[in-house]
Design a protein that fits this description.
Oligomer: single chain
Number of helices: 5
Low-confidence stretches: none
Mean pLDDT: 82
Shape: elongated
Number of strands: 0
Distance between the termini: 32 Å
Strand content: under 5%
Radius of gyration: 16 Å
Order of helices and strands: HHHHH
Length: 94
């Protein structure tokens, strides 16, 4: 069952453009509610899944670096000590 709030948010999403989802570059302290709903609807993204997936991605990068993968080494050098929010912005950029 979907709440009325979620139904209203989905209705609002039908009329939005790419520019309505927050900045791609620069600081974005809090994503708009409709952007969070879009991620939930289209990507099945939740806070728990996002955290788990980022942890898995970082583990995969470390495994590939240990196996001698040069590209993984570059990714680890670039993002290994950066916050998850920066890695997410990189992954989401178009």
């Amino acid at each position: 069952m979907v709440s009325e709030e979620e139904q209203a948010m989905r209705s609002k999403l039908e009329h939005l453009t790419v520019k309505d989802h927050g900045p791609v570059f620069g600081p974005c302290h809090k994503l708009p509610g409709h952007t969070i709903q879009k991620a939930k609807d289209e990507l099945n993204e939740t806070d728990e899944k996002r955290a788990s997936s980022l942890k898995d991605l970082r583990a995969m990068i470390k495994e590939k670096v240990a196996a001698g993968d040069d590209m993984a080494k570059l990714v680890q050098e670039r993002f290994g000590h950066k916050p998850d929010s920066l890695l997410l912005r990189f992954l989401r950029a178009r």
